[in-house]
Amino acid sequence: MGIEIERKFLVTSDAWMQQGEPVLLRQGYLSSHPSRVVRVRIDGTKAIMTIKGKNVGASRGEWEYPIPMEDAKEFLDKLCEQPIIEKYRRRIPYAGFVWEVDEFLGINAGLVVAEIELPSEDQAFDKPDWVGEEVTHDKRYLNSNLITHPYSSW
Amino acid sequence: MGIEIERKFLVTSDAWMQQGEPVLLRQGYLSSHPSRVVRVRIDGTKAIMTIKGKNVGASRGEWEYPIPMEDAKEFLDKLCEQPIIEKYRRRIPYAGFVWEVDEFLGINAGLVVAEIELPSEDQAFDKPDWVGEEVTHDKRYLNSNLITHPYSSW
Fold first, then answer.
1. Is A151 a catalytic residue?
2. Which chain A residues have a beta carbon less than 8 Å from that of B78?
């Protein structure tokens, strides 16, 4: 198991758009239960199944398994909760860390969030000036909740 | 993906007990939703994650991934729906097929079912004389339902 420590922010301008190559992510859930999330994701040419335990603060147990691309496609199209999440992700290095900026598509179009993964909960870090309000603890922004309560319905 | 064609029966005597070595299976569910079951199983020294799609007749799409034993133990103890299922399985060859006889423990103690996996839905097969009534389509006997509605509560 890994422990994932992630903080999530809104963005305040489009300046991120000029940075990083967009990669299309398609992801869906075999379970969106907060204590046992089972996520299927196609990230460019990689297909991954990820299990996530309960959030404790900004930390969460996380286990990843590569799976065949063909299986991932079948899960996303036929088994996962619908609709699935589609978003462009840009990976933007800044001050020693990588920011992942997710630009959502479909029923979540208009939503953009920036995430940073940290080695410990109290790790200090600098924010680019297009990074705004923190939403780490706002459950509406959980990808697993954006299926049942999409941004377009807020 | 494989297609799993399985038929399930009650047993009418203890004659199966003398046959086959019992192996302890421990299994739990990260999702017990009938359209997207995610099962974690420890079968002797093997640890497996299995995804199952919707039942269509006696057939069901099934995908299996080996996972590290340590991960499986953590899922069963901490993430899966509780309580988990524990049972002794005996594999008993008979007339060209293998019968799997599951003797449930814990809250499902007293329940014994015999299953046969078939290459096609119309495959003919012979039954040992300790195999009784078919319960393939009785959803109470789904392992994923035996957690919320255990045999001891019937």
1. no
2. 53
